[in-house]
Specification:
A: about 350 residues; alpha/beta; Rossmann fold; 6-stranded parallel beta sheet; two-stranded antiparallel sheet; 15 helices; 8 strands; globular; B: alpha/beta; 7-stranded mixed beta sheet
Amino acid sequence: MEPDLMKTMLRDMLLARAFEERAAQEYAQGNIAGFLHLYPGEEAVAVGVLRAAEPADYIVSTYREHVHALVRGIPPGVVMAELFGRKDGCCGGMGGSMHLFDRERRFMGGYAIVGETFPVAAGIGYAVAMRGLPEAVICFFGDGAVNQGTFHESLNMAALWKLPVLFVCENNHYQIGTEIHRHSAVAEVHKRACAYRIPAKRIDGMDVLAVHDATIEALEQIRVGNGPQLLECETYRFRGHSMADPGSYRPRVELQAFESNEDPVKIAIAETVAGYPSEEQIAAAGSGNIERLSGELQRSELLTVAQLEAMKKEVAEVVEEAVRFAGNSPEPVMADARAALDCNRHDEVLI
Amino acid sequence: MADEVYYWQALNRALDMELAADDSVIVLGEDVGLYGGSYRVTEGLYAKYGEWRLRDTPISEGSFTGLGVGAALAGLRPVVEIMTINFALLAFDAIVNMAAKIPFMSGGQFPMPLAVRMPGGVAKQLAAQHSQRLEQMLMNVPGLRIAVPATPQDAWWQLRQAIRSDEPIILLEHELLYFSKGKLEPQREAPPMHRARVHRKGADLTIITWSRMLDLSLRAAGKLAEKGIEAEVIDLRSLRPVDWQCCAASLQKTHRLLVVEEDSRFARAGAEICAGLAERCFYELDAVPQRVAAQEIPIPFNAALEAEAIPRVADIVAAAEGMCG
């Protein structure tokens, strides 16, 4: 792998972690309200997948999508301003944390009804396939979404018409508070794809290099017209489902079961005992995926400790600036909301 | 030149014209391709435009409607046919949470050139699950527009307008209207999609209606005329937005309001029409606004009971006479 790409991905992950931890602080201080779903623990998935995508590809994401948006290139200040509900946010304050959109970057939205990303991605894929373009659609979803009818309906259509969609499962093992074995008769998400003859793989979602490689491989197949692919990325979220969720449903016995499976998130889980993890606990968990990549870079002498520290400092400044940008952005007014609602009314004047 | 055509033919010609004019127009739905549509609306189009433009879908209303939303986001102009409105309940997330809200939530970044056609209403002994009228469940959603064509001419105009619009449009078609005939003047300039139309002039009361109830209301007006009561009959043509101007202008003349709807009375479209016009024209009114509506019951299978459950011409005549007595 390209050394520059590896460094880029490490920076993405550090920025992602710093951005999300700061969002939690801003939430605690009242600058962000509503539902706020954070991504720490899962960074390797968004970064590995999106760094393998082309600018012409489309991204369809869920309500836990700040990091997807950042990696896709939406400036951190613009994302933070949307979290603040301000006018300079990527949706002018109309969408908020769960509904980030950026048409120019083909970031086709964060969807907050579980299972919505499937048909939206299939529809975009339909448009691409009909026009015979070499573009792909990346469709993110969680392990909880696979029990919605739209998963099965959309995978069926995507396979039937060979639509260029990469389905990426961010399997963090929990649909809010219900562990996967309690919500799915078949807990291996990738196995479900065979019902629709969609090639699927389970990969280590804590290993950004593995995620990146698997995505490149899948996208190659998609671009030559072989139809959809599915990747199940095994990962884990360090925090609760949202800021409103202390995560107390994750019992010790279940964590021990994960440990005994030699799961790559072992360290993180062991530290994330029942209860809301503190800053110290998260730090003690070793940042999982991030530590792994920075360790790799240091071992291969691509990055010195000093350079890593400089990178951390740089992203901290970026986040600081993002918060400043968001805080300085004006509140939208009702006329802005009306304009957004009527954005597609052109010549016609309604009575 | 005015042709006499069936309502389904008007829709068929409108689709043909738009598919030919713009290669981003596609049609999605169950049996819209090879079969030609359960009400013949897409007849002959699959052979002409091919499977990517006329796509036969699996029975997955929620997802093929959502697929239409995604295709619209990527620049296509999908026309989704939901075989009957009864199945649209499975597609409400795509319609209400996606199509209606994405342009708004994105801060106005995305067009939503999606048209969703739904045959509905009470037809002939299709029983409760297949006899629904769901106007009120759609007309209260900001971001949607609802067209209710009652004639071949309006079907032709409004479907073409819906396809060309960048807003999501729901077309509520009536299953008993597909084989009704009417004049079609293809060259005639279309009024705005949401403009109501006065079908019959009269000075004694205003009957406001839409879809299949227009025909019954006009027949009732004929009978009322024999009794010396001149009813003005307005076809709303659009349930969101409503052409309040046209309705209010009529009430300023007649001072009496009768709403005729095929749906039942409680919390349905007629309630909003009455409330909206009471707010606008209260001091113009000489009588309490009245509604002729279906009984508050799921539609029975039995033919006689089915007929009794929804408004009949005699019910409209009786209500109008009561108001003008």
